[in-house]
Amino acid sequence: MGHLTTLTGVVVLASMLIPEAAAQSCSGVTGRYQPKMGSGYRSSVLATGLRQPRHIVVDSAGNLLVAEGGSQGVRRLVLQDNGNIVCVQSNTQIVSGSTNHGIALSADGKTLFTSNLASVTAYSYDAATGQVGTGKQIVTGMSFQGTHPTRAITTSKWSPDTILVARGSQSNIDTSTTQQSAARSMIKSFSISQGLQTAHNYNTGGEVLAWGLRNIVGMTEDPIYGGFWSVENQMDDLRLNGRDIHTDNPAERLSYHGVLNATTNRYKGLNYGYPSCVPAWDPQNVGISGLLVGGLFKPDGVPNVAADECANSRMTGRLHFHAHTAPLDIKFNKNSTSAYIAFHGSWNRNPADGYRVTRVDFQDGQPVHGVTSKTAQIPVMENSNIGGCPNSCFRPVGLDFDQKGRLFVSSDTSGEIYVIYGA
């Protein structure tokens, strides 16, 4: 796989919205939607006509690599500055037919990783030319039967030989994941160098970083403090004692997993409760005395646990978010003062919620807000008409920063890449 195939018939350059100024754009094209931007931010549409763009990564030369869904492969967008906006100089396919969601680069930028529902594949990669080598599977065994086919992946700069792979549940309530041996609803770490020699089997290999996590679709590492973080999509159609409480429960979750290369990591291997215990977003609606935001409780239809297990024996998140907003990615800015989160949006609540990018402020490696806060999110980029979602709006999926501090955002349903300035 060393050739480049140029995409034809796809529009890749688009307009930008600049408050209180004449609109500027790259040559030729306007995006489908006009986002509402938070204070201090502005945006442009970098690319349109893509095929379900999912996670994205900026390479060491400043090019944007995009994993397209449905086994469409990886596209390389070579970028150039045009005044105070960024445009696409060329758009080529560099990997075909092997991805459905995940993409990552090694710490030195010379190896490209992609994931599909069954495996993780590594390619040698030249950021200057876009050339890739022949793919080699380094993690296998993740067969898919159910509703969560994404396999989020990321690498570590603090532990450069490590790749992290998340595998979600195979159903809304996956009862077998009460046992680690199910090898689902967890994050595992694997040695890259060993995988290049002999592929790891996800079911039996690697180390469990965290489990009891229903569906992790976004993971990242703090560039300054080294902490590893994940965002989780929690359970749908929740009931408690026969009562429907699903509109505002359970909470989506931001979880902390320690520093990967630490000599002692007390967070390593912790169980976060799924499928038996879920976190509250609206404790009053749950109706359990003393329950706080993020507190774990046992709903109907899940495997039985001891009376105090949810409260005392399972790890909860560091921050929590509105039910069913579906966080799919998280990235820190370069000085780790903020983490940005892409919320793909709800299908399991009415009215709809999500469909936005928000910011969470950090200090000394941890969120400024406390665990029970409901006000930690700061608006960055939202749909002007959320009533048009999910079919007639942008739906954020992947995030990544370039060295100039520009934040790139993919929208799978609209086939677009946005750029946020001021992040």
Automatic annotation (TrEMBL):
Signal peptide residues on this chain, from the entry's feature table: 1-23
UniProt keyword annotations, A-Z: Signal
Chain segments annotated as coiled-coil in the UniProt record: none
Tagged with keyword Transcription regulation: no
Pfam families: TrAA12
Domain of life: Eukaryota
Membrane-crossing segments per the record: none
Gene3D superfamilies referenced in this protein's UniProt entry, alphabetically: TolB, C-terminal domain
Boundaries of every Pyrroloquinoline quinone-dependent pyranose dehydrogenase beta-propeller domain copy: 35-421
Name of the protein this chain belongs to: Pyrroloquinoline quinone-dependent pyranose dehydrogenase beta-propeller domain-containing protein
Origin species: Staphylotrichum longicolle
